[in-house]
Amino acid sequence: MKAAVLKSFGSPLVIEDVPEPTIGTGEVIVEMVATRVLSYMNEVFSGERNYALDLPIIPGPGGIGRVRALGPDATRLAIGDWVFCDPTVRSRDDAAAPDIALQGLTAAGPGGMRLQQHFRHGSFAQQMRVPTENVKRLGAITSEEATRWCALGTLLVPYGGFLAANLRPGEIVLVSGATGNFGSAAVSVALAMGAACVVAPGRNETILADLVRRFGDRVTPVKLTGKEDDDRESMKRAAPGPIDCVFDIMPPSVSTTVVRAAIMTVRPYGRVVLMGGVGMAGGAGLELPYPWIMRNCNSIHGVWMYPPDAAARLIALVRSGLLRLEEYEATDFDLDHANDAVAHAAANGGPFKLTVIRP
Q1: Quick check: 64 and 35 in contact, CB under 8 A?
Q2: Are the C-beta atoms of residues 140 and 349 closer than 8 Å to each other?
Q3: No. of helices (H) and no. of strands (E), the chain
Q4: Are residues 178 and 186 in contact, defined by beta-carbon separation less than 8 angstroms?
Q5: Nearest to residue 185, comparing CAs of 211, 149, 209?
Q6: How far is CA 178 from the centre of its chain?
Q7: Among residues 13, 14, 15, 18, which one has the least CA distance to residue 46?
């Protein structure tokens, strides 16, 4: 089969023929139809992000495809089913604290690297071998619709954060990083889950206005100044009531003062979700006052990705009409132009933008 292979950091992807994947027990072979390209994939391939990848590897974190072959433990899937391939691979021998690898992207710790040795190759290929439990049925879609369904991979990240925070209908949410690709997804997911209001702080007034245009008066924009105390008070004043949940998805380049200003808007007994990249590229770590956390009984949730059942639940939100994939503007590339797709994704990583490879 044809695949895009990363052979060394800092080098372009090589498009070449590689052996087709072989199936084993607990596995499914999926014929890939569409797979998204992360906006920072160029930083992964250059080595700048220092992701744990044992090269050479076929990259690509999940995607949309059709079932080609099934192992003996699959009882609901059928050949030809349209499916989402969840890249969050978990070890099967410790349900309480599994090791995790993101297939085709990175791995967490030595256990995650061991997982990557087997479920190593990702979705920038015509076929992909996936753990059975990571293959989620979509129902009937067309080949053209597969492109937009790639947005699931982006939407699942904030969905996992809000599930960890037990977001309830009618609550007030603040999304720190609302003007970014994952942050704008968080705004749409929070509203789909029933948030009464989403406070959306940021510096880009054009993007803030676009969020209001898309979602109406349930989104309250706040223009940030960079002054921590002033911004904190502005965000609190903008909310129609106490802020129940703060969701942070800021990138590594952002100052910790910006992140802290948003986090400390949460009400007493409120919840904070940390899913961003602050501190991952070095520099100062995030400092929060111990007395503020303790005396206000605030809960802080560090969340990486989402629980195993999240994808099926999010698909149901889309099918119900509560979450609209139509918000996304997608640009397609074929596999022969995978390097062009990576460059395009880096230059077009804003809200509700998708860059997709169709192998």
Answers
A1: yes
A2: no
A3: 11, 18
A4: yes
A5: 211
A6: 14
A7: 13
In which band, very low, low, confident or very high, does the pLDDT at 253 lie, cut at 50, 70 and 90? confident
Q: Report whether 301 contacts 274 (CB < 8 A).
A: yes
> Rounded to whole angstroms, how far apart are CA atoms 101 and 105?
8
pLDDT tens figures, 194-226? 999 999 999 999 999 999 999 999 999 999 999
Query: By percentage, how much of the chain surpasses pLDDT 90?
Result: 93
Question: How far out from the chain centre does Cα 60 lie?
Answer: 13
Cβ–Cβ < 8 Å for 271, 278: no
Report field, pTM of the whole predicted structure over 0.85: yes
DSSP H helices in the chain: 41-46, 109-118, 145-149, 152-164, 181-192, 205-215, 228-238, 256-263, 290-295, 310-320, 338-347
- The partner residues of 65 in beta bridges, in order of sequence, read 32, 83
* Angle at alpha carbon of residue 301, lines to 298 and 304, rounded to 5°: 170
